[in-house]
Predict the 3D structure of the following.
Amino acid sequence: MKDFRYHVVSLVAVFLALAVGVVLGSGPMRDAFTGSLTEQVDALEDDLAQAQADVAAAEAQTGTARQYADESAPTMLAGALLGTPVATIGVAGPSDSAQAGVRDRLVQAGATVNAELTIEPVWTDPSQSAFRSSLASTIAPNVVGVDDATSTPTVLAHALAQALMPGVYPTGFDESALSDTDFPDAENAPDRSALLMDLLTEAGLVSGVATGPVQAYALVSGTGSEDEATRAEDAGVYAALATTFAEYTGGVVVASGVDATGDLPSAVLNSPDASAAVATVVEGTEFYGQISVPLALADALAGSVGHYGPGEGRTLVPPRAG
């Protein structure tokens, strides 16, 4: 009897469950459940359609803005750097598109890009410090403005500047200083410059092509190391390099991407000497900011070093020099 009653109860439970299911599936409760779900689906579809429309509108606005920038750039940049021979120097691993974009805007401003170089990781790699020190000792006798007490990074920076600027000397020196080099005659300045460039490239510190002397520099900076401490340390070396260039010309500008802790513009601004001599353009490697790089460089050549781009303490767009 006990087993029979147990089966009866089980069967009754099954039939009750079926009955409840029928009621829920065919009655008003079904409409309540499915109606609510349908409303939610409709709302989500509306949200998706609006989001897609917003994306399409944003893409259209971006396309229009880029077209406007491309079409207005020739007027904004026309003649700003007319006839100025410039070197573009990649540091901290910039993308090819960033370097190409900056170069194209410099050319659009009338500049002649006589050198397109990259500072290789060997320049800052801690494991290569002994190698760099040995190279600096080898190069130093043919570098004007350095001596035995000059630090290795400074010797190398002056060597690169003099490799790119034959016949130009750092602050406080002139051609009389050539008497201590292997090229005492001023007319042999191109030979000394070629030797310095060969030594730097063969050592793997610098790569790229230099086809003639330059009068100004555009340093195009990548994001650098993911480690903030390493990035900041490297940026300090590059800021010192840019400051050394500024001993030879007033035209030195640094173009970077978006703000990042320890980046090159930060290193420049954190150094009184660098910030007074080297212009910076934050987001200067981005599409719109690339237009600001030639303007900032022209302004620096005219004697006004500024710091540009979005963010506190900066001017968004450089003025047109002259």
Notes: The mean pLDDT is 89. The chain has two domains: 2-59, 81-308. Residues 2-59 form one domain.
